Give the backbone structure.
Amino acid sequence: MSDTPRRRGADRTEAIMRTTLELGQEIGYAKLSIEAVAARAGAGKHTIYRRWPSKGALLLDSLLSLNEAGLDYPDTGDIAADLRVQIHAAVDLLAGPPFGPLFRALIGEAQHEPQVAAALNERFIGPQADKTVARLRAARDQGQLSPQFDLELAMAILSGPLYFQLLITQEPLTHEYVDRILDALFTGIGPTHAS
Amino acid sequence: MSDTPRRRGADRTEAIMRTTLELGQEIGYAKLSIEAVAARAGAGKHTIYRRWPSKGALLLDSLLSLNEAGLDYPDTGDIAADLRVQIHAAVDLLAGPPFGPLFRALIGEAQHEPQVAAALNERFIGPQADKTVARLRAARDQGQLSPQFDLELAMAILSGPLYFQLLITQEPLTHEYVDRILDALFTGIGPTHAS
Amino acid sequence: MSDTPRRRGADRTEAIMRTTLELGQEIGYAKLSIEAVAARAGAGKHTIYRRWPSKGALLLDSLLSLNEAGLDYPDTGDIAADLRVQIHAAVDLLAGPPFGPLFRALIGEAQHEPQVAAALNERFIGPQADKTVARLRAARDQGQLSPQFDLELAMAILSGPLYFQLLITQEPLTHEYVDRILDALFTGIGPTHAS
Amino acid sequence: MSDTPRRRGADRTEAIMRTTLELGQEIGYAKLSIEAVAARAGAGKHTIYRRWPSKGALLLDSLLSLNEAGLDYPDTGDIAADLRVQIHAAVDLLAGPPFGPLFRALIGEAQHEPQVAAALNERFIGPQADKTVARLRAARDQGQLSPQFDLELAMAILSGPLYFQLLITQEPLTHEYVDRILDALFTGIGPTHAS
DNA sequence: GGCTAAGCGAGACGGTACGTCAAGTCTTGCG
DNA sequence: CGCAAGACTTGACGTACCGTCTCGCTTAGCC
């Protein structure tokens, strides 16, 4: 019933993550400081440090709070179409604002913070890989994929080119690009054996 | 007449880059400071700022000075074998010390410094891609590759999985892993058409 | 039935003051924090703030609890001897541990906390001055002191040199020093009139 | 020729001390922070820490810069009159703004910073004591003082009561008070021997 | 003897300042 | 005149306490 209630726990956590995303979008992750997040969120610095051990950890949580549901896989029975739909959705998330730029920054951070790298894999990459593998396994059992196809490599082969475009060449990551990659992968590099 | 003569120009440039690599290996790129490089190299900070606009630019130059020759492509006539050899060499460079850790850090830096990203593409990724495409084109003309194979995508498809392993999952990048990826790519994901 | 029963009122007050003295001795008053006292005493910070408005007030109470009886004046009929005895006792208290260092710190605190200064005068300096003046008045009435002797100044003249030694020069405050001061004061600075 | 020249060394030192005195007067020493001095002086914190190891050391230098000449002793041949004049001057300095409040704070600081105490004695108390003793010695040689008078105690006996009033009772330190003290000291406490 | 009100420990919270570090700019004086 | 040396302002770091606050638990005191 107070006019300016001193809120606790989850309230503060949420406000800090929201502010992190706001500031991150406005000034870019590189210039983002915990000091500035605290000031903008009306929080004490200690309140942030109590929750997150590093800027990377804060960003990771903030970012994942944007995608709590995760990316779900459709299963229409046509693996090629389903993969296309799912990867289109992934690309829309990864490449677009606000997720995209901050996600790239987070991967940058993961290069010198092993804990961020581990958490990123465990909480984002891993679950997505699991779903991908599960869907591909079903397709393989139905004969839509080559029986020899190595499911462990699926994530690297399917996602690698996207991350290459996102992180290295930094050219636009479009649906059309995804489609070309998928076509090439389904066909294979070598000449078709049957002729 | 001094015992440590005040050297100029290229001497200073080289000494600073060498020190950057040394310090980068010792304390990690994240903790690398221009201040520390200057102190260790016996150089004034101004001498560094006169040559490089940012830490990323300094690291890029320092790193590329390790691989001035670039990675050359063999051409034995067998594209599958040549690719394998070449990518093994690339992986040996990228994943091993001292290049690996600093290279990963550089890609991290490229996520928030567009100039570093541009220079990285222009001076390292691009040339490698050109060589790869040239070798693949020759192979395609000889019928060793599918005529439909999209050469523009070659670098993303071949390198993407490696960078995914290097940057995202951060698991060891071995020859055996490369071989499995290449096998899968040559075969293609879909079931073989001949049946 | 608890092994560490949650005690109330005076128990807590006493425990907090005892802890204050302990910690003050161990780490020095300057580094003493209410946070640390609370933690060591197993008390909540609020329990301390409920009783004392400031660190100075807490220290004052803690310190005076060491000397609840006060310093009593002997009256043997010989004022010079009685003064000597009494000031020796005062010096033993003021200069020795644990009282001395904390007492000095308290006077330091009194320089920027008027409430501490007032309380210090009211509860420690004042009563001692009253006793001193009363004893001196008796001596004056008995002709042992000059009739012109200004009793109001007695405390300043007798104690001033001691506090000077304690607070300013910070050299040892010994019985021998006190004796020399008393001798000089009884004699006076000027040349003796009788000659 | 620049409009806002970046000044060095002594300029910065002087500006910081001046700001320290200003801020100290405005908000009081207890609330004085190095952060605030730096901000007000337009100086970096490091520039302050480079020069002074602590707040006390900064205040000491700042304060002594107000009284670089020191308090000089007159010598008219009449020691009682000269002492009176000199102590009046000392009291005017010690008790009045801006010196007084900051000087009290400095003595407070000296209670838990031995280095401040040492510097205070060496640079302020000591020189004043030396002058006092020299003047008193001359007077003693001329027969104006008791030959037995212990010159080593002079400073404590003469100044002690003033510091007692300044630091402990914190009542006004007036010329009239000084005069009463001096009268009492010259006379001595005991009854006059001539009777 | 059960109920309520207060005291209490614990510690989260918004703040302020600490003392350190490095960034990037500048000045000085050597060679 | 390029350089090393390093002083300078700026800004962020991560830590320590401040004094206020909320949270449940315990304990007294009053019905």
Remarks:
- Residues 6-9, 12, 38, 42-47, 50 of chain B lie near DNA strand F (CB under 10 Å from a C1').
- Chains B and D do not touch (no CB pair under 8 Å).
